[in-house]
Structures are given as C-alpha cells and as structure tokens.
Amino acid sequence: MTEMVHGLLPVEVRDPILPRWWRTVDRWSMASVCFLFIFGLILALAASPPLAQRNGLPAFHYVERQAVFGTMALIAMTITSMMSPATVRRWATVAFGIALLALVMLPVFGTDFGKGATRWYSLGFISLQPSEFIKPAFVVFAAWLISASFEPNGPPGRMMSFAVAVTIAGFLALQPDFGQASLILFAWGVMYFCAGAPLLFILSMAAATVFAGFVAYNNSEHFARRIDGYMSADVDPTTQLGYAANAIREGGLFGVGAGEGSVKWSLPDAHTDFIIAVAAEEYGVLMVLVILALFAVIVLRTLTRLMQERDLFVRLAGTGLVAMFGVQAMINMGVAVRLLPAKGMTLPFVSYGGSSLIAGGIALGMILAFTRNRPQGALSSVIRGY
C-alpha cells in the first residue's frame, strides 16, 4: 500500500467499460443491424395486419410484438458485444447444453402449431424455437473444440465437433427442419475448412450431403413436396412461391406504394419467410438492394476484421457465425425468387419472430465481441514469424 501511495508500483488505469466498448466495437455493423430492424418494423406494418385480422387480433398486434422482441434482441446484442471472447465461450457452452436438451425433448413436449413440423415449445403467451438458439451456441462450442485440437496434447476436437454437428442435424431432420440442419452442417464445414480441412474430406462431405438429400427425398413427404415444387417447370400461381413471384414482378423498380400491395392478403407467411416479397412489391427492387447491401456490410466488415485476428478460436467462431448469418439471409431471399426450394427460414432481423430475433441478436453480439479491436499485432506478422 505504501509503495502504491508513493508511486513505487504502477497503478493500472482502465477506461470505463462503455467508452472502451464504443471505441473498439464495429459501429458500421451495429448501424447496419439497427437499419435492418427498422426496415423489419416498416415491413411488419405492411405485412402483419392481414394476419392479425384473420386471427381476430388488433391490427398492429404483430407489429407491437416485433418492436418488443426487436428491442430485446438489440439489448442482447449490445450486452453480448461487451463480453470478452473467453466470456462468450463460457456462456455459449452453457447455452449449448441447455439448447441441446431442449432440442432432444422437443418431440415429447413440443408442438407444430398446425404446420406439420414440431419445432416449438408453446408457453402460452410466447413460443420458443430451440433450433434458433442452438445455432450460435453450437458454432462457438465447435470453434472451441476445433481450436483446442491444435494445442499440444489437445483433444480430437475436429472429430468431436463433427459428431456433435451430425447429432444436431439428425435431431433437426426429425422435426423435420432440413433448412436449419443444413445451416448447422454448413457452419461446421466453413470452420473446418478454415482450420485446414483435407480436400478428400470436403469431397466426402459433399457426396454424403447429396446422398442424405436423396434419402430424405425418398422417405420424407415434406421434403419431397418442396423439392418437386421447386423443380416443376410451371409455378402454381396459388402457392406461396407463385404469390411471391407475382408480387416481385408487380413491384418493379420503385414498388406499388406503401400499403398498396396485395400479396400480404394471400401469403400466410408474408410476415416471416416471404417478407422480402412484401418489400419488393410495395417498395420495389431498390429497397431489396438496400437490404442486400446492409447484409453485405455486416458480412464483409466482419470477415475483414477477422483477417487481422491472431486467436484461432476467435477467427473460427467469428467466421462460422457470420457465414451462417449471411447464408441464412441468402437462402431466405433465394426462396422468394425461386432460386432455392422452400426452406421455412426467416430473414435475420427483418422477419417477424421472437426466437429468431433474440437468437439473432445474441449471434450478432457474439460477432461484434469477436471483432472488437484488441491490442495485438496483425496476423501477417505471425505468418512472417515476428
């Protein structure tokens, strides 16, 4: 104590957490997420009143819930982004265990809400979808296992992470939810590739994926129906894909005007899976391009900042999370324009849905935590050996 008073021992002076966080976080990505949420509210105002009317609810019931869930998601994103990578890893491991248990118990206690797939827990006032929460937790957990396998006397983390990924994908396929199962395997494949996967293994994975799709097509009516609808030369105008395609054509470059679109009265999932069709019809291709640009900003800035990261765990986890985020957006929009078969996948931060919004906020918070500026040399200096 005497030494500290008389200045013989240095006293560490730390910035308050909020100024330090604001100085180091990627503000461009944060701003892009906020704009996506704002666009989601605007589109919810257009797409959700018909659904509320069909369900006998107040006109802006779903808009209000979107605002509440979105605010919770932004708070979760901000809090998570303030954590250190080690703290994120610890909490993600706990969350992974809880989400995996919830996923395993889903066939017993879950419900399908009449949609033919048991994906939710109904809690009365709210429903929870475990698959949304297990995705970011799994990516961080798998990145930890893979990075640990490169340490001296480390565990066989790559094979362990592969076994976990296949197990989760199997439980998701049983719901059935082939879209989320594909995302889990894709995220693992990206991380394993970045960790130096052998080319033979990558080719084997591709062949196994094709074989799994063949088996699913011949044994799942749900999967076969979606593939047949996608492969058909003609689109039935009375299907969701038909309504979405027509809405995008009607919107043109500038749209038919706010509130003037008609697709929201025909599409049961206009506020979720096909929200981009509502955007294209009422606000035109220009709004779709703006939304695409916001997703591109988040993905490209994240990958750019991760290129300077020296910690292997951080690089793998950040890459897996942002790859999953970007591909989910691509799949959602690809389905709407019939580039991909229907997947039942939301557009992150734009589509309605409490689980997807809050889980997305946690995932983006993890990405922001991993890409914060930290004292370290550039990765290039490590490669050069100094």
Description:
With 386 residues, this protein is mainly α. The protein is built from 16 helices and two strands. Helix 7 (130-148) runs parallel beside helix 15 (354-370) and helix 14 packs antiparallel against helix 15.
User: Unreliable stretches, pLDDT < 50, 5 or more residues?
Assistant: 1-5, 381-386
| Largest sheet descriptor | 2 strands, antiparallel
- What is the global morphology? globular
Strand order of the largest sheet: 1-2
Q: Count of DSSP helices?
A: 16
Give the rounded overall mean pLDDT. Answer: 84
* Class inferred from helices and paired strands: mainly alpha
- The share of residues in helices is 55-70%
Number of strands: 2
First-last Cα distance: 39 Å
Tell me the fraction of residues in β-strands, as a range. Answer: under 5%
Work out the count of structural domains: 1
If you compute it from the alpha carbons, what radius of gyration comes out, rounded to the nearest whole angstrom? 22 Å
Quaternary form: single chain
Order of helices and strands: HHHHHHEEHHHHHHHHHH
